[in-house]
Write a structure and sequence with these properties.
This protein is an all-alpha fold. Among the domains are: 69 residues; 109 residues. The chain is built from 21 helices and no strands. The chain is globular.
Length: 441
């Protein structure tokens, strides 16, 4: 059975009439104005296994929460499907539960939890208690873990609320000196995440402002690892906004500060340094820095930032992705780099893995597409970037859009640029960032 049909039947959709309302709702969320599929088109998908044309694909992904490649795979009769849904993609179909809808129950439960947290935060009027510190630290840990796995629209309000809670406790003057370090550390981490969110929304100026706040808090916490991490974020923001010289400066500055540290933050700064050097075409620096990072990986001792995970750690999978990206930016092709690029994609293939991140997966897929283009493999390049084009609007952050534009730029050059596959792919890439209604502003 086609997995597409399995997903629909599991949600009580067996006819075109039952399919159309949730499809239209998904199209409305994406801002898609294309006509609905015809009944015969739907039947061709369901019974004949015909793959939908590109105009319908984003809506189906948004509606069902799975990539097109996952939906158009066969599921043996009686077997449990192995495909994992895309994180944070809502399902707009009917609910079979009696009484209050599950989403409404979760919403009211979250409101109750929020009210209870406010009670605890306000109860310690004369001093900050252990319960207050515990609640704040638990929320920080949750958001650090969720950021690379969830669309920004899902966690943005929680991020801002948590940052406000920590600032309010700090401003209240009730914390004991021994507690100030932990409070400033949590404020620094939350400001780091908010700055990353501003960058993901293509607002580098606000992102840089928030990194100043994160850096101030990191220094108040007397945490050199977090100070270096903020330098890395400054480099990242400059990199994605096209300020390569600034990206190189902040990466070098942070790498020097992180030299005595044993966690992975120093490795991340080396990776950022190599990527910025690659944009400038500095092959020697890229090679030397990547070699130093590979050797340093053997001496890493995970620290408290690595223990939190998420954006605060630099996994081996992410290091491979950065190394491949530096090669792709240098215009390198060939079988060896292509094999490394495929390994980088494979490293993020399991959404249940602890270091999985949808943005890193999309970036690795764009890099694979670029490297295949550099090697003259047009069909392979189109295949590699297809899952990125099928991402729902909720997942199209700034870094993913810039990575997709690089593929578009590469498609416009060379002898393959006039091929029909290249023309069609360029058209899709031009439309890719157009509809992102779920990104908060």
């Amino acid at each position: 059975m086609l997995f597409f049909r399995h997903v629909l039947e599991a949600r009580g959709i067996r006819s075109f009439e039952e399919f159309l309302p949730p499809y239209r709702e998904a199209a409305r969320r994406l801002g898609v104005t294309e006509p609905d599929p015809a009944p015969k088109t739907f039947q061709g998908w369901l019974y004949d296994g015909r793959k939908p044309i590109r105009a319908f694909r984003p809506v189906l992904v948004e509606m069902l929460g799975y990539s097109i490649e996952a939906l158009w795979t066969q599921v043996p009769e009686g077997a449990e499907p192995k495909s994992a849904p895309l994180s944070g993609v809502p399902f707009s179909g009917p609910h079979a539960e009696p009484g209050m809808a599950l989403n409404e129950m979760k919403r009211t439960g979250a409101m109750a939890a929020r009210r209870a947290k406010e009670f605890v935060l306000g109860a310690d009027r004369d001093r900050v208690g252990d319960d207050t510190l515990g609640l704040l630290s638990e929320e920080v840990a949750r958001l650090v873990s969720a950021y690379p796995r969830e669309p920004l629209s899902v966690i943005w309000q929680d991020l801002l609320t948590a940052q406000e809670d920590v600032f309010r406790v700090l401003e209240g003057g009730r914390a004991r000196p021994a507690q100030l370090r932990d409070l400033h550390f949590n404020a620094g981490v939350l400001s780091f995440l908010v700055a990353k969110g501003c960058n993901d929304m293509e607002d580098p100026d606000q992102a840089m402002t928030m990194t100043r706040v994160a850096g101030f808090c990191a220094k108040e916490a007397e945490h050199p690892g977090l100070v270096a991490l903020v330098d890395g974020l400054k480099s990242l923001i400059a990199y994605w906004s096209g300020k390569t010289g600034d990206a190189l400066h902040y990466a070098s500055q942070g790498a020097a500060a992180a030299e005595p540290l044993h966690g992975t933050v120093g490795l991340w700064l080396l990776g950022l340094h190599a990527r910025a050097a690659a944009v400038l075409g500095d092959i020697e620096t890229v090679s030397a820095v990547n070699l130093a990072a590979t050797e340093r990986r053997e001496r890493v001792v995970p620290d408290d930032l690595d223990a939190l995970g998420g954006l605060l750690t630099y996994s081996a999978e992410k290091q491979r992705y950065y190394i491949v990206e530096s090669g792709a930016l240098l215009g390198t092709g060939g079988a060896e780099l292509a094999a490394q690029a495929e390994e980088a994609v494979q490293g993020f293939s399991d959404p249940h893995a602890p270091n999985w991140a949808f943005g890193d997966l999309a970036g690795a897929q764009c890099n694979l597409s670029l490297i295949r283009l550099h090697s003259g493999e047009l069909e392979g390049a189109a295949e590699a970037v297809r899952p990125v084009l099928d991402l729902p609007g909720t997942h199209r952050n700034n870094g993913i859009v810039v990575s997709a534009r690089r593929v578009h730029h590469a498609l416009s050059r060379g002898p393959a640029s006039t091929a029909s596959v290249a023309r069609e792919l360029r058209e899709e890439l031009e439309q890719f960032p157009a509809s992102r209604p779920a990104l908060p502003r």
